Structure formats: C-alpha cells, structure tokens
Amino acid sequence: MSKTGKITVKDRDPVSSLQNFLKLLLEKGTVEAVLVQQRLPIQNAAVMPVLVTDPEKLEGADPLAPAFPLNGARMLSRLTRKPLDAPIAAVMRPCEIRAFFELVKLKQGSAENVVFIGVDCLGTYGNIDYQKIAASTAGAESTLTFHRSILSGKGTATGDADISPACKSCDHPVATNADIGIGLLGANIEESLLLISNTEKGARVLGGLGIEVEEGDQPLRQSAVDALVSERTAYRDKMFEATSEAVSDVQKLMGYLGNCVNCYNCRVACPVCYCRECVFTTDVFDHEPAQYLRWAKRKGALKMPTDTVFYHLTRLAHMSTACIGCGQCSNACPNAVPVAELFRTVSHGVQKAFGYLAGASLDDEPPLSVFGEKEFSEVTGGKD
Amino acid sequence: MADYEPTIIAFVCNWCTYTAADLAGTSRLVQPPNLRMVRMMCTGMIDPKYIIKALLEGADAVLVSGCHPGDCHYINGNLKARRRMKLLKEILPRFGFDERRLKMTWIGASEGIDFAETARQMTAEIKELGRNDLRTRMVL
Prior knowledge:
heterodimer, A: seven-stranded mixed sheet, 14 helices, 7 strands, B: alpha/beta
C-alpha cells in the first residue's frame, strides 16, 4: 500500500522546491549521488542527465522540464553494471524506469542500490522543438510556463510545437514502480507536490528524511490520473489503428520506411535494444561488392543501402518484447520516419500475445528468456 | 497460380527432422522436391532473422522443424524455437505476410512417413496460396 506525503512549494516554484528535496537526500547522506536531469551551465542551457554528489550543484536540476534528450535508462545502466558501493538516487520519467527494469532483467544493470524517484510525466517535446522553447525563455521559466499551461487547461501545445506522439500515446504517465513517486497529477503544483512511497525502500528513505507520510486514498489524484490515462489510451488506440493500416502489407511498409537511410540512430537511441554489438554493423552485412551486383541482376534493381526493411523487422524481433514506448527512436530519426508509432504498435501486440508488459515489474521474466513444455500449441498446429 | 512450383526453405534440426528426411529418402517415399533443406544442429539456433531474410528474398514459405518436446538433443532448444516462431507469427502477419507461410512442426527421427507427408501437404498448401511476389520485386 502506498503512502502519501507532501513537499510544500515556496514562491510558487515547484522546481526549486524539488531541488531542495534532492539536496536533503545528499545532505542527510541518504544517497551518495543523485542522477537527475539538469539545465547545463552553458549558453543554450541544454537539459541532460547529470550525476550530482555536491548538494550545492543541484541548482540547475529540473526534473519537470519537458525535455527528453535521451532515455536515462542507458545512463543508469552505465552506473550500475557493476555493484555500487553506496546508494544513489535516480530521478527519472516513468518510461526511463520501465526501460531500466528491462535492462536489469537483461543483466545490463542492477536496481539493488538505486532509489528510484519517479516523476509524473505530462509529456516531452522532441529535441529540436524543446531547444527552440528553452531558447526563448531563461532558466527554468519555460518549465513553469509548460506546467502552468497544463494546469490552466490550455494543454501542451506551444506555438507550432506539441509534445511528441509517443508521449501523447503514453498510457503510463505515473511511475508506479518507483520507490518514491513525485506526484504532479491531482496537486496544485504551485502550492505543493505529492510524495508517494510505493515500496519499503521508499518509505525508509522518506522516514529518514523526517517527511511524514500517511496511508489513505487520494481521490483527487486518482481521478486526475484516470482522466489523463484514458485520454492517452484513446489517442494510443487511434494511433495503433492508423499505423496498422499504414503498414498492412510489405509495399506499404516500404513506403512507411521509405526515407530511412540506415543510419541506425533509432537503434542507438533505443534504451532496450540490448545487443552490445549490433549484427547490422558487423561483417555479416559487409557484403562482397559482387554480391550487390548479383542481387541487382536477380531483381533488375537494388536500392542502396540495402536491407532497410530487413533491419527494422529484425529490430522488432529483438526489442518488441521490451519496448516501453518512450519514443526516443523517433526523436533520433534524422528523416522524421515515424518509427516510434510503428515499434509501439507492433510491440503492444507482441507483448499482449505473451501476456507481458515491458517494465512493469522486475519479477516478470522477458518472454524470450523463458519457455514451457506445454504452451503456444497453435504454433505447431495444435500439437505439443 | 496453381501451376507454379513453390520454394520452401526448411530449417531442420540435425537430430530429428533431418534424420527423418533421410529416412524418408532411403525408404523411397515419394515427396515433392520443393523443400530446400538447411540442416541446423538444433532448431534453437535458428535466428529469427534467417526466417525474415528468407521471406524478404522471396521464399514462398519457411518450415522450421525439430524434435518433439522432451526429445531435444540439447534438452530444450526446440521449446525456445517455438517461442521465437510465436514472436514471428505475431510480427510478420501485421505486414501482410500470410501466416501459413510460417510453419513449425515436430518430426522425430523415426518419422520418415510423417516428414514426406508434411512436405506433400505443405507444398500443396503453398501452391494454393500463390507466390510470394517479393521474389521479383525490389525490397527496400
């Protein structure tokens, strides 16, 4: 049962109040470091994940910024692929925690000494859009403007930019698997933020900080969460339908992927594309020059670079059981191929077929890492 | 369409289905010559991309066949293969690949008759289904 407490917001500034909360974690020695997205102390104030050990160096921390330059699960994986000596806190979006859970199950990280602080996610902009938005206002002001606009019911659109389709279709805006949740939904964030402990570890940390929490329903929050989830699910289902239709045969799929130049950025940006070395960049695909000519002769024409559809289908075979729908693939695509919609749509079906939900829990085994003697008899025509 | 000869790529395991195919041959069982056999040590080592590649290159169907559950020479490779086939059967039909072009069977080493029958049936079914037209089309 989760317990709920509060962070009182001073000067109508939830960002600096959150910074104070994180500062407390470091000052009290609860954790040795905090991994949190920060506005970098440089001219264009890019927002990136930063590992902070000095409480004084948290002034740029802005977990509420609608920026998502990369999925932080990969960064946390770098920090935890060997045992950590002391606990660290990771302030992450729900999709980052879910992606990290998948990596833990693939033995590419450990959740052992990590306190997950999951912030309610109201959506993020694509990198280029966010850069423009951040450049037009100083510091965390753009973050506050974004949240004020949502609070006042004006939505997420700013100028001609809006949050990414992956975020609009995200049905997991709340990090229910974090140790501590930072609740924005159902709170007036200019007055207070909710602190929700979902686990024993989370309760211990909040207790150690002297923050009072109590059990009990949060009807206001629950209804705000339900409303957002149902809005997003409706968008998601429409997106599934439109995407399925857009790729319903190979000719259409080729059209859908037509602008792909095999840069493999989507694979690099993908937090759950788990191979240490991708087969598509190995000798296997370093074809003999004569091979290209043989292929061209067989069909009369050969598009270069080759293997574009092959690459995307293979990627689907690898990551569709683990896709958490963060949308970084589309964010990284130089040619605006709507890959996130495609991967999410297929992954949803695949995960349903295996009765699995990526990132939901550390206890569910990834579908392709387990098997049973009697299962899926339809695959072999009813015989098992 | 019914008068074409389909090309079926059959990934079979060394210990069961390949041996069954051998038995079918030495027993002089009549079977169509449409299967192109690829002998693997175990169905558990068939990477899904072999199957994707075969279909993208224009194979009319892919057959994966190995030992019955419990009989795998490597204990459970066939059960892993079944999960991968399940995965492909979930992914590929979304892009218009007919599910019948992806077949998996268990054929034990002594089941030569079963192998010949599978080859006959599958060839007839894929003939009926028609060509995979990617054979002659440029695939991006």
